[in-house]
Automatic annotation (TrEMBL):
Organism listed in the record: Streptomyces kaniharaensis
Organism superkingdom: Bacteria
Protein name as annotated: Uncharacterized protein
Amino acid sequence: MLARLSQDPELDGCREIALREAALADRRWWRSRTELDGLLAESAAYALQQRDRLHPEDVQGPIGPDSIEWDAPGGTRAYVRQEYWHWHNVPPGCGPCPPEDPCPWHAEHGTR
């Protein structure tokens, strides 16, 4: 199942699936710590990051997929964790807000 999306990062409308599969693969690795699960998690994370580079309008977290922040070992999986957190916690359609006029969610939780 994980290899399905990693083969084509340009699949339109599948970001949520790619994100959830990458997050699941990362959780599997955290539980097993096996080399195979690590490779699957890295592959799924890389596929999401590549897809987000092609579609930057879909990125939800404050640090984009091209940032050097993700170049360190484990960086692609850290990118998945950032994106999954924002997907899971920030209301749909809530984009970056100017500090002087935040939406209700960002007023309560801080701007990104």
